[in-house]
Amino acid sequence: MEKEDRYVLPDSFILPHYALIATLMVLLDKSELNQTVKKHCKTGLRVVGIIHADKSYNTGTNLLLNKEFDGFFALFPTEFFNNRALIPAIMIIENIEQCIKNNYLECVDS
To answer: What span, in angstroms and rounded, lies between the C-alpha atoms of 93 and 90?
Structure first.
């Protein structure tokens, strides 16, 4: 059996999701975005982490019912505010992207 030759960057590795989320939060803190956008994006990253943990480890999404997430979910359609476990992570990620690009909070229509 022949050995396959591939160049692998010495610093290429896969970080666990929680390490990526923590790194992104630090980068947000160091950015020049306004404080409201930073807080919203960091909350969104926490929500994505909770959703990922539920999908991967079946931990549940009860944490999303905490009042600290009410303001975040208020920017999404009512169906997700009332049933937070239904929100797709990609919708949150796209919302975070738009908020960062525009430096203000974006409401999500659908």
So the answer is: 5
Q: E strands along the chain, which residues?
A: none
Q: What is the dihedral of CA 26, 75, 93, 49, to 10 degrees?
A: 60
For the chain, 110 residues long, give each residue's pLDDT as a single digit of tens.
555 566 555 555 566 778 889 999 999 999 999 999 999 999 999 999 999 999 988 999 999 999 999 999 999 999 999 999 999 999 999 999 999 999 999 888 76
Q: Tell me whether residue 57 is exposed, middle or buried, using C-beta atoms within 10 angstroms of its C-beta: 0 to 12, 13 to 18, 19 or more.
A: exposed
Full-prediction pTM beyond 0.70? yes
